């Protein structure tokens, strides 16, 4: 294939999860259902939190922003995949591919930061309950959200703009259902050493540091909970962390699973299938986890349903 610097004229091909024509309608139906559940579930979480004044606390403030990030990251990848399946046209422009990769990085970074912020919120609530309202004030919560968004934007722009320096061959085929930046860089015809280093640094900053912060928070939480003499008291305190722990386990567990699968298999298509877990399934299950495991959220959703029923 011929190398070219005319990247604006390049069209990438998103190969998707399968090239079997008989499976395309099934894939379309499954991903459409999962996308609708993801958007509807997270949207209901946001509405329930906004409509119930009892949920106007730091924990639910972070949760509503996490739900918004879930909607955004799913909307960045799945609609394009559904259009490609429906039209049987796998093409995506260079600009469209780079834009998609940039937004995926942005919202994934925000999700990592929000999960760390939620762990810190639980740490303060359990380990410093008397100072909770002073420490986790609205000013700090907004600053944490803005900081998460700012550094995620800078990271996404830096990594995406570095791709502009690369040369690509014509008719580039991406063995994925969306433009994952690492997959795009692998297909470049020019030297990608700097790009790969930046990706590893970004993975450490947005994956390693938040995860390390979450681990430290829960070490302190467990230490404080074990000091409570009553078993029932321990359970009651620690149960407030159950939903967050479930989401953290799902998010980082699926991400680690994709990394392991990409290391042990030579099939990019199998890696793409595994990446569905962290790019869609996690976002779909988050509202279910928080609504099923959280009594206050269930009450808020029932109240919201009652209000909607009254207006119908």
Short characterization:
The chain has about 300 residues and is mainly α. The chain contains eleven helices and five strands.
Topology (SSEs and partners):
Layout: E1 3-4, E2 11-14, H1 24-51, H2 58-87, E3 91-93, H3 94-127, H4 132-135, H5 138-163, E4 168-169, E5 173-174, H6 181-186, H7 193-226, H8 231-239, H9 242-264, H10 268-293, H11 295-311
Parallel strand pairs: 2-5
Antiparallel strand pairs: 1-4, 2-3
Structural write-up:
There is one protein chain. This protein has 312 residues and is mostly helical. It has one domain (3-311): Rhopdopsin 7-helix transmembrane proteins, CATH 1.20.1070. Helix content is 76%, strand content 4%. It is built from eleven helices and five strands. The chain has helices spanning 24-51, 58-87, 94-127, 132-135, 138-163, 181-186, 193-226, 231-239, 242-264, 268-293, 295-311, and strands at residues 3-4, 11-14, 91-93, 168-169, 173-174. The strands form two sheets. It has a three-stranded mixed sheet. Strands 1-4 form a two-stranded antiparallel sheet. Helix 3 runs antiparallel to helix 5 (138-163). It is globular.
């Amino acid at each position: 294939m011929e190398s070219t610097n005319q990247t604006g004229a390049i069209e990438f091909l998103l190969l998707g999860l399968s090239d079997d024509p008989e499976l395309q309608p099934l894939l379309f139906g499954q991903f459409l259902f999962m996308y609708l559940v993801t958007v509807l579930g997270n949207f209901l979480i946001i509405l329930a939190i906004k409509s119930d004044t009892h949920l106007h606390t730091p924990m639910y403030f972070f949760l509503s922003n996490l739900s918004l990030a879930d909607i955004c990251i799913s909307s960045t990848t799945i609609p394009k995949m559904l259009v490609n399946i429906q039209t049987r046209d796998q093409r995506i422009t260079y600009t469209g591919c780079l834009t998609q990769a940039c937004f995926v990085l942005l919202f994934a970074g925000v999700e990592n930061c929000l999960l760390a912020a939620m762990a810190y919120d639980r740490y303060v609530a359990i380990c410093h309950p008397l100072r909770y309202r002073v420490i986790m004030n609205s000013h700090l919560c907004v600053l944490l959200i803005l900081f998460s968004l700012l550094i995620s934007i800078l990271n996404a722009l830096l990594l995406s703009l570095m791709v502009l320096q690369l040369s690509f061959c014509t008719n580039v085929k991406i063995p994925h259902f969306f433009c994952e930046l690492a997959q795009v860089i692998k297909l470049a015809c020019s030297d990608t050493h700097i790009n790969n280093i930046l990706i590893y640094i970004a993975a450490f900053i947005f994956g390693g540091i938040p995860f390390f912060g979450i681990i430290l928070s829960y070490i302190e939480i467990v230490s404080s909970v074990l000091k409570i003499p009553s078993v029932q008291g321990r359970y009651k305190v620690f149960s407030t962390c159950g939903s967050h722990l479930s989401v953290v386990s799902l998010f980082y567990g699926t991400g680690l699973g994709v990394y392991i699968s990409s290391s042990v298999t030579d099939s990019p298509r199998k890696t793409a299938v595994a990446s569905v877990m962290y790019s869609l399934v996690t976002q779909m299950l988050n509202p279910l986890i928080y609504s099923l495991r959280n009594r206050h959220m269930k009450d808020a959703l029932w109240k919201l349903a009652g209000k909607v029923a009254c207006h119908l």
